[in-house]
Specification:
This protein has 720 residues and is an alpha+beta fold. It folds into four domains: 95 residues, Beta Barrel (OB fold (Dihydrolipoamide Acetyltransferase, E2P)); 364 residues, no CATH class; 51 residues, no CATH class; 126 residues, OB fold (Dihydrolipoamide Acetyltransferase, E2P), CATH 2.40.50. The protein is built from 16 helices and 30 strands. The strands form ten sheets. The protein has a five-stranded antiparallel β-sheet, covered by helices on one side. A five-stranded mixed β-sheet has the order 8-15-14-11-10, with helices on one face. The protein has a five-stranded antiparallel β-sheet with strand order 23-22-21-27-28. Helix 1 runs antiparallel to helix 15 and helix 2 packs across helix 3. The protein is globular.
Length: 720
Amino acid sequence: MRAVLHKDRVKVRVVRSDRKGRNEGRVVEITERSKQPIIGRLLQESGVWLVAPEDKRYGHDVLIPKGATSVAKTGQVVVVELVEPPALFGQPVGRIKEVLGEVDDPGMEIEIAVRKYSVPHEFSEACIALARTLPDKVRPQDQTDRIDLTDVPLVTIDGEDARDFDDAVYCEPASRGRGKGAQKGWRLLVAIADVSHYVETGAAIDIDAYDRATSVYFPRRVIPMLPEKLSNGLCSLNPEVERLCMVCDMFVTAEGEVDAYQFYPAAMWSHARFTYTEVAAILGNTRGQEATRRKERIGDLLNLHSVYQSLLKSRQKRGAVDFETTETQIVCDQNGRIEKIVPRTRNVAHRIIEESMLAANVCSADFIAKSKHSGLFRVHEGPTPEKKEILRNYLRVVGVGLSISDDPSPAEFQAIAEATRDRPDAQQIHSMLLRSMQQAIYTPINGGHFGLAYGAYTHFTSPIRRYPDLLVHRVIKAILAKTKYQLPVLPVPGEAHAKLARRLDRGTAAKQGPLKSALKRNNAEGMAWLAAGLHCSANERRADEASRDVEAWLKCKYMKEHLGEEFGGVVTTATSFGVFVTLDSMYVEGLIHITELGGEYFRFDEIRQELRGERTGIRYAIGTRVRIQVSRVDLDGRKIDFRLMPDNDALVARGTMEKVSGRDRSGRAAKPERIEVSYTTPPVSILREPSKRVENKSTRKSSLPEKTTSPNMKIQKKRR
């Protein structure tokens, strides 16, 4: 291992198994060296310059020759390009490629993260030059063959800190048919920024957008997928300016079913920019201060709330999974220092927009599937057999009367969530339900969306910040024009295509039936769509990892100011090496290592997801409340360590006989006693014997027809 670095590709021979049955191997060949630069701090030791990598997965310091230090100074954060890889008896050698600055500079954690995870953060010169040629506003020639919706009071509803607005909504009562047989419901319009009008396939902007695949969000900074002229200007549905959009025009029944829909390009005018907080306040009190300022829009907001309630009925009928999880928001000052960490609450306005977007996404997936056109679906598969078994065992041991079948439906998960919502260990159970599911991916093979209980689902509503949405827009436009959208065989030759080629060489991909048939139909086209889905999925994960890395760094920096302080918290994860605790007031997670839990042997129970002491029977499971002290913060490793406070013994045996070396106060040998221990799980009776020796063996280690208008619909459409 001395001759390899993190992310090198190697060939390994399995040589033996360890005592736990895990394979151990030997590196026999280094097939490919990683080209990713290394970020670290420049140090000088005994006259030798070296860089200590910020990412501890690199097991070597990098030697820097005297003439290769550039203008960097000792202690600064630098980017290193390897000149010589490590050898069995020699360290890697590199040269300084870029100086980022001092470690305490504001925003340094973001600069490190974008390079650490290879997030593209600079647009190409060709992309910038092309963006400059774009107009500043909608031109008359851009409005050809578009529906004029400028008189329809579409509005945007986003967060307070949002800068790009890619969706607008409008709703009004509507009916289909005439007379007594008329079906009453709602007409819901979801207008999405028409990015595809300005970003042509294969153009410089498109190449950069594909390379990024998604916008990356950090506290106080966003790395956009598109140049700012598009993301915050020409494509953003800013208030009181004309913009181009793609519209999903739906008829929603009183039961929440989308009975008909159609797509069309349009020109719109946003009549207002609302925040979630503002809309929630108006709906909560239509005579309040917020409502008074926006009285002309109150009726439209009430209509949106009504269609949301109908869509919610449909969601409940489908049995879509809806877990209540706590998301946090880091509030920073101007210098980038954390002021506080607060929970991000979801109100009724969030849910209105969420259900509206879900409806539009389902319509786009249905439209593409029925046309038999290739495209990217958002697929979320059900739990694997292994995860199903773990979940069944867990639900049984914690006393939940419900379980899941061999072929579970989303409704089964939702039923368990509803049945346990009022339990003290609800957060623990919902966390386990969530962990049992797989991650959603982008793929041209439609496998449905398990969590949302949809047979087909895709992403249509955020083309400013997600490349798959841009592809969906292009496909829909091609279907409307009765043509076929041709995805370039290699939009950007890159890692995704190499990964797919390796999978096909190994035969793993070909074993999947739908995938195999897709490749048979058109190998070049199938490969292009599969690679695009793989690329977008991987970059979505990369963006999430980079964001989490920055948040972890900021939280570590924040907790450094609270070393030695005591806090209350709850166990959120149990592992074989300790338990992770999330603090009540700060929403920061840290580790209580198993060596800090007390002087006895602890066993990890995978089924119960808990650590149990063999002598005392004390258990630390997800949901257990503890009192901790902040003992250590490792900024480079993004780790926070907690120490269990002595008063946690009350959790084990509050009010039991005091013992000294196995004897009571009178000096007589103490008799075995039976005590009741209260936890978030059902009480367990434990027989505890006085122990003469304390031992710690732990190691740290219908489609609508052409038009959806009816005599009862007020929207007037004019063709320009």
